[in-house]
Structures are given as C-alpha cells and as structure tokens.
Amino acid sequence: MKNTNTLSTVYEHINDMTLSFRTVVEVECNWSTPTFYRRIRLPHLCSPAEEKMALKVAQTQARALLALIDEQTLKVDQEMPSYPSHLQDKLNTQSTLNDADSPYNA
User: Compositional bias (Polar residues) spans (predicted)?
Assistant: First the structure.
C-alpha cells in the first residue's frame, strides 16, 4: 500500500530524486557510475551537450516534484479545509523559506 502521509510522501520523493537523477543522466549520456562522479569532480570533462542533458533531466524531475506537491496540497486541502490559526497566518504570508533568516538562504 502506498504511503498516505504527505510529509513522508514528499520526503521520499525528494530522497529518491538523487538516485533517479544520476541513473537517468547515466543512461542518457551513456556513462558509468564512476564517470558520473568523475564529471562532478572534473566539470571541464563535460561537454555542453552533456550539461544540457543533465539540466533537462533536472527540469523533468523538478516538474514531477512540483506536480506531487500540487497533488498532495489538494489532498490535504480536501481532508482538512481549515488550518489551525497559527499555520493559517504563515500560509497567507510569504513562505518562511524566503525569509532572510532561513537556513536555505545562507
């Protein structure tokens, strides 16, 4: 049975993205796993076409993540149409991830 916990679903998807990204790039660029990591360490070995392919794979995965987030948001909204007041204020304002004190903007 598929996990119905939103936090777990999103976390697992993000966690799986690194392996999936590496696997797809390896297939599309005809690389082995050691070659993939060598290209990370020595980026001058990547051709522009290989860089473009990596970006295309990343973009596809980002779209899939955004679709999953949209799907999970709809699910949560249907299950709980009103949020607790302390969360509602945060949801109605700019995301805390964009705040200057966020660890993601270091």
Answer: 90-106
Using alpha carbons only, how large is the chain's radius of gyration in Å? 18
Task: Determine which helix (DSSP H) or strand (DSSP E) holds 75, and give its type and residue range.
Answer: helix 48-79
* Domain residue ranges of the chain, discontinuous segments joined by +: 6-95
- Cα separation, 103 vs 40, in Å, equals 25
pTM value?
0.71
Residue 105 has what DSSP assignment? G
Residue with tokens 């903007």: 105
Q: How far apart are CA 53 and CA 29, in angstroms?
A: 8
Q: Predicted confidence band at 3 (pLDDT cuts at 50, 70, 90)?
A: low
DSSP string, 8-57: HHHHHHHHHHHHHHHHHHHHHHT--HHHHHHHHH-GGGS-HHHHHHHHHH
Which residue has 């993000």 as its token pair? 14
